Amino acid sequence: MSDIKEIKSIRIVPYTLMNSSISAVVGLIYAVILVIILGVVGVFLPSSLGITAGAIASLAVAVIILLPVGSFIFSVTQSFLTALIYNVFVPRLGGIKLDLVDLKEIIGVPVVPFALMLSAISATLVFLAMLIIGPILLIGLQGAAIASVYQGATIPGLGSIGALGIVGLLIMVIGVPIVMFIVSFIMTALAAIFYNLLAPKIGGIEFEFEALKEKLYGINSIPPIKLALIASIVMAIINLIFELISTVSSIAMGSSAAAGVISLLINVVFNFVIVFILYAIMAVLYNYLAPRIGAVKLELE
Q: What's the order of all strands across the beta sheet hosting 97-101?
């Protein structure tokens, strides 16, 4: 028997710690893959380029250190703000709702609450980022425009961009978050729609909940294959839609139809495989880390 549960709040510290830990491990995996690629490429590089084995080794060490650490720090900030913004927005927008069978399997996600909350969080994060990046970018552009005038160099369009001033800042601080909200709403709504169509047929995401106290539940584990399968299929369908639009547009402009179809198929299959592997790894990491650093905790009502 299914029951609609609303996520009323997310415990910030466990959510942040779990997300950032998973991001750090995934970053380490990416770093190892990149180092292997660097090593293979380094073997075939001609000596005339002057790239030594020591330089490649130094770069590899930097990648191994910086990518996991950078992923961890970025994820700490993003995860903390995401959980905080979610908890602040719930009384105003309503929380994400889950249609759960036996408080375990998610067989449906009401589309509007899901899309509205996630797009609002995305827009808010972009707004906060633009408050920092916007002024820095405009000052840099204006400085480059002034320097180019004094040096007698003319870079097409740089002067007009640097002169935008407050208008440019408003575009970045207000316009960009609005665009992010619209794009995120469409994408998350499509994801929820396709999830709702597929979950009853192939099985939805499952959580092993543990009741901690009244209305508070911890997610002890997540079956990796079920999560990876439905996530990869949903993302592949969304990717297929946008790739179809891009392919049709390219063909209409004179590109080869055969090449467009082949590229579409390769992109969709590649996207499916990558998403499947990534989500499976994330679920495995979650199941390994949950007993050690603490599970994500949600208030369900």
A: 105-108, 97-101, 2-10, 297-300, 216-221, 208-213
Residue 221 main-chain phi, psi, to 5 deg: -160, 160
pLDDT by position in tens, the chain (length 301): 678 999 999 999 999 999 999 999 999 998 888 888 877 776 666 555 556 656 666 777 788 889 899 999 999 999 999 999 999 999 999 999 999 998 899 999 999 999 999 999 999 999 999 888 877 776 666 655 555 555 555 555 544 554 456 666 777 788 899 999 999 999 999 999 999 999 999 999 999 999 998 899 999 999 999 999 999 999 999 999 988 888 888 878 777 777 777 888 888 899 999 999 999 999 999 999 999 999 999 999 9
- Each domain of the chain, given as residue ranges in start order, spans 7-102, 111-205, 216-301
Q: Give bridge partners of residue 209 from the DSSP assignment.
A: 219
111/53 Cα distance (integer angstroms): 53
CA atoms of 155 and 59, how far apart (whole Å): 34
